[in-house]
Amino acid sequence: MMKPVKILSVDDEADLEMLLTQYFRRQIRKGEYEFTFAHNGLEALTLLLKNKDYDIILSDINMPEMDGLTLLTKINEMQNPALKCIMVSAYGDMGNIRQAMNNGAFDFATKPIDLDDLSVTIEKAIGQIKYIKEREAEHTQLESLKGDLAAAAGIQQAILPRVFPPFPELADQLELAASMTAAKDVGGDFYDFFRIDDERIGVVVADVSGKGIPAAIFMAVSRTLLRATAIRGDGPAACISYANNLLVKESVDCMFVTVFYGIYNVNDGSMVYCNAAHCPPIVIRSERSEVRSEKGERCEMLSYSGNMVVGFDESLTFTEGELQLHPGDTLFLFTDGVNEAINSDDEEFGYKRLEASLEKSADMTPQQIVEHVKADMAAFVGEEEQSDDITMLVLKVKQLAIRS
């Protein structure tokens, strides 16, 4: 049921109350209008301070104790844009009417009041009030949504590992750092790392299709399923396959996720991994390493696996790859928000610039590598808005328990 429009009539002439209640009797009877009457500005102000839900003030200008212009000033101080004032005065009192309009009155009527014209003016005011209240409700909802998004962003960051270095007991054997920066309040990228047993560590970087709230929800589901599956100790392909079968059932609007999941052996430096349509990681070889890319460069991108995305088709099978890391080598995992960052000329940061950045930072710590790549990206992108989530995970081998 619609609330009645509350109108406060302020006039020292007693017969106006009878005229208004008689003319608007149908609206009053139907509960569309609700009139309250005051006889001067001071009495009206008292009513306004007690009840802040009036919609329209119909006020005479010339009254005892407090005139209508003073009342209008007091109403303006309440800073309620949905409260509309219609000022009433004698036809020849155009100076005061003009001043009232300049001071923020919605409209005016002249005495003797043309009630038909006043009815039109009230309806016009009601339309403005409705519009303002709708905008205020939208603003309130937007502010509430912003608060929810801020809380969601905090929760999303909280579920990602944030303690670095993550494995103090392995400080002599490896270093690890990671970062996720969402393009919106919340994102669809995630990273993860965890101990599987005394010898093995799992590392994950993934990218959910889309951005914003839907991607963030699917990200949380994907990350939980992958971790719960991975810590059982199965191989990467088996974990990805199992997670895929579960995510297919959870996917809405054909959402999917690209995933790189590797299991690193801290004793011998070997890694077995499954890359499900994700960006191929880059290996940065130690300066002393005899292992180089085909062109003799320190940076080498792993080959594409041929696996499909996760969460799209339950019938998919996934294959594994193997990688050998040596002391001083670094593994750089990332999402396409890195290489696809765009500048004002619509150019992508690209793999060549990324590899050049990694070449320069190869001997830095993982955290320094993350910050160095971020700085190079920022310099390239300039003032352009971030278009995609940006995630990086860096693992550097310090030494091995078993010499390779």
Structural overview:
There is one protein chain. 35% of the residues are buried. Helix 3 (41-50) packs parallel to helix 4 (68-77) and helix 7 (212-230) packs across helix 8. The protein is elongated, with a radius of gyration of 34 Å. The chain has two domains: 5-138, Rossmann fold; 164-397, PPM-type phosphatase domain (Phosphatase 2c, domain 1), CATH 3.60.40. The chain has 404 residues and is α/β, with parallel strands linked by helices. It has helices at residues 15-23, 25-29, 41-50, 68-77, 94-102, 115-159, 212-230, 236-250, 336-339, 350-360, 366-381; strands at residues 5-10, 33-38, 56-60, 84-90, 107-111, 174-181, 189-195, 200-208, 257-265, 270-276, 282-284, 299-301, 321-324, 330-334, 390-397. Strands 2-1-3-4-5 form a five-stranded parallel β-sheet, with helices on both faces. The protein has a five-stranded antiparallel β-sheet with strand order 6-15-14-11-12.
